[in-house]
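User: Need the bound-state model for zinc ion:
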Amino acid sequence: MGRKSTFYVDIMDIHDKVTGSCHLCVVKDQYGENMKFIVDCGMFQEEGGDELNKKIPFNASEVAFCLVTHNHIDHTGRLPFLVQNGFSGNIYATETTCNLLPEALKDSCSIIKSRAKSTGTKPLYSDEDLEKTLSLCKPCAYDSTIRINDHVKVNFFQNAHLPGAAIILVRITSQGNDDINILFTGDYNNKNVFLNDVCIPEWVLELPITIVQESTYGDTDSSEIETCFNDNIIKAVKKEWTIIVPVFSLGRAQEILYRLKQLQEAGEIDKEIPIYLDGKLAIRYTNMYLNGLAGIRKDMLDFLPENLTYVDKILRKTLLSNEDNSCKIILASSGMGSYGPARSYIPAYLGNKKALIHFAGYTAVNTMGRRIKDAPYEEIVNAGGLLIKKRATVEYTSEFSAHARANIIIKFLKQFSKVQLILLNHGEPLVKEQLAPRILNEVSAKHVGILSRETLFRIDHFGFVKTIPTKFI
Ligand SMILES: [Zn+2]
Ligand SMILES: [Zn+2]
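Assistant: Bound-state model below.
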């Protein structure tokens, strides 16, 4: 049994795993004030997530405002659907995220529309919902305090997960009480080759605070990362294979391009070998980087390898025909293989003995990437609806990951001197269960909890109050 509180926040999570990020926070105070806000409203991207995507499990019209941690579809993809369901509050995000968001949502919208067309169903939301969503966005500068209403102040702090990503501090005030402080890490990383390192201001580190911490890679340490990408690429190039690298459009695509440039400069791969980048959004983001997207380090603007070609529809057809067996490197979105041109390249080359398919990031359970990665060699695999014998070499590395490992998460948490409660989200259930006791051992937090769709956490200015079964509608 927890203590009785009159001013508290209930923190709920509508996703259990990695995709579909969305937290509903319900604030209540002793004067009967009741306010709801959400952090992120992402798309469930695991296969089978369609049913979850069709339902907002709370009354969207009662939500006062939305905070967005970063421009990844698993954090933003359902914002237009939220609007369709009656949400009309402001959407706060960093300036860079507000610049990136229209591209990402328009691309996602066109994928949704074409999938709806092919299945004869209604798209999740309309163009009008999308336009309205974009009109609600309020760009926020890093580090400055944004007063959202009489009760809430927020700050966006730099996060190396990707350009524009933020760690968000929410301070909730009620007269006569101490503030309730909550920090949402969003997807967190401490380092990024294109960005400056993360630095949380001293005054934040000293706040009594609840931290909602992502845990995607909470079951591994940095020392376990196998840095095999360069070797695998060099080996495949020597054998004159075709190399397919599924990439996330934002961040990963640019980082891999930079890595290939480094390999060229070191003389490890011949500059004559053609490199292709396929994915409208990946190309647009690459151009935004080149044009000095806010936050990108100025000394990193020259990151493209030589002999790079952006792929259009006609060229894609040639590349997919599999007729040309000469050595080439094709970067194609999306990173998990379930969407975008990668969804075509993977089946096209999976049966080819002279191909390397190299995943370079997290592949969620039930995505094409995970299935192909896990399938034994020469097993028949369902790749985008086609049954193909796996004859290509399939490799994976997590060395580019934009998510911190357990030891880095713990290092981050240890900086805070008065942590009241740590709530783990954004991780496979088993990973969260593994990370929780480790945090309890190594970080001086009073409580560590695991967020799920089933249980909400009530907190007040002393921290943890109690858990309650969540009653989503
Ligand atoms: Zn992310
Ligand atoms: Zn995420």
